UniProtKB/TrEMBL annotation:
<keyword id="KW-0560">Oxidoreductase</keyword>
<feature type="binding site">
    <location>
        <position position="181"/>
    </location>
    <ligand>
        <name>FMN</name>
    </ligand>
</feature>
<feature type="binding site">
    <location>
        <position position="100"/>
    </location>
    <ligand>
        <name>FMN</name>
    </ligand>
</feature>
<feature type="domain" description="Pyridoxine 5'-phosphate oxidase dimerisation C-terminal">
    <location>
        <begin position="168"/>
        <end position="208"/>
    </location>
</feature>
<feature type="binding site">
    <location>
        <position position="78"/>
    </location>
    <ligand>
        <name>FMN</name>
    </ligand>
</feature>
<feature type="binding site">
    <location>
        <position position="61"/>
    </location>
    <ligand>
        <name>substrate</name>
    </ligand>
</feature>
<feature type="binding site">
    <location>
        <position position="77"/>
    </location>
    <ligand>
        <name>FMN</name>
    </ligand>
</feature>
<feature type="domain" description="Pyridoxamine 5'-phosphate oxidase N-terminal">
    <location>
        <begin position="35"/>
        <end position="154"/>
    </location>
</feature>
<keyword id="KW-0664">Pyridoxine biosynthesis</keyword>
<dbReference type="InterPro" id="IPR019740">
    <property type="entry name" value="Pyridox_Oxase_CS"/>
</dbReference>
<feature type="binding site">
    <location>
        <position position="118"/>
    </location>
    <ligand>
        <name>substrate</name>
    </ligand>
</feature>
<feature type="binding site">
    <location>
        <position position="126"/>
    </location>
    <ligand>
        <name>substrate</name>
    </ligand>
</feature>
<keyword id="KW-0285">Flavoprotein</keyword>
<comment type="pathway">
    <text>Cofactor metabolism; pyridoxal 5'-phosphate salvage; pyridoxal 5'-phosphate from pyridoxine 5'-phosphate: step 1/1.</text>
</comment>
<dbReference type="InterPro" id="IPR012349">
    <property type="entry name" value="Split_barrel_FMN-bd"/>
</dbReference>
<feature type="binding site">
    <location>
        <position position="191"/>
    </location>
    <ligand>
        <name>FMN</name>
    </ligand>
</feature>
<protein>
    <recommendedName>
        <fullName>Pyridoxine/pyridoxamine 5'-phosphate oxidase</fullName>
        <ecNumber>1.4.3.5</ecNumber>
    </recommendedName>
</protein>
Length: 208
């Protein structure tokens, strides 16, 4: 299971002046690589206020200087953990490129207007799906879920506007550090981390 990575070095001189521009370069390369099926899939880790962690995959829907945005149910496990403890970590596992990007920061909810604008771009079926269950709650059966979906289909047939569920919306992760990890042979990996310092970013190299 051990792979020797044949990759080019990542030096401080190669890095963009700020991490979102650097992320954008790597994200483009990832998106162009057919070996990576969902380049925008990322692992979101949250924790309860007493420090019990949990992780799951979500899709990155937007990023810019303000942060990284995904959409979810605010009453889900992750949603409730983030309400109680906004510290969050994101991990992009781009294994075929021997790369990972790790973001740490704080979660803030997007504005309702941003949520509504994104919801409107989703296919009708996934709009209904957002209503179909209270994410993370225990349910009795799959039939229960399907019955609820069918009920919603009758209520909001294709072409009818589906309202945005009140408990559904965007989460923006405002980064305080972003690490770019490039794997190399013999465990001599590059790890360059941008750390926020007021209005600018400091770059440091970490031991692999
Ligand atoms: C590839 C992939 C993408 C996913 N994207 C999302 C997403 O964008 N939003 C979301 O709420 N759940 C998404 N999920 C489901 C989550 O992994 C998770 O099951 C769900 O959000 C409930 O998580 P929680 O109970 O820890 O809150 C995705 C799962 C996979 C495998």
């Amino acid at each position: 299971m051990r792979e020797q990575y044949r990759t080019t070095e990542l030096t401080v001189a190669d890095l963009a002046p700020e991490p979102i521009a650097q992320f954008s370069r790597w994200f483009k390369e990832t998106a162009e690589n057919p070996a990576i099926h969902e380049p925008n899939a990322m692992v979101v880790s949250t924790a309860t206020p007493d420090g019990r962690p949990s992780s799951r995959t979500v899709l990155l829907k937007h990023y810019d200087g303000a942060g990284f945005v995904f959409f979810t149910n605010y009453s889900s496990r992750k949603g409730e953990e983030l309400t109680a403890n906004p510290h969050v970590s994101l991990l992009f596992p781009w294994h075929p490129l021997a790369r990972q990007v790790i973001v740490t920061g704080r979660a803030v909810r997007t504005g309702r207007d941003e949520t509504v604008a994104y919801f409107r771009t989703r296919p009708h079926g996934s709009q209904l799906g957002a209503w179909a269950s209270r994410q993370s709650s225990v349910i009795a059966s799959r039939e229960e879920l399907l019955a609820r979906y069918e009920e919603l289909e009758t209520r909001y047939p294709e072409g009818e506007q589906v309202p945005v569920p009140p408990e559904w919306g965007g989460v923006r992760v405002v980064p305080d550090a972003i690490e770019f990890w490039q794997g190399h042979e013999n465990r001599l990996h590059d790890r360059l981390r941008y750390v926020r310092e007021d209005e600018s970013w400091r770059v440091e190299r970490l031991a692999p």
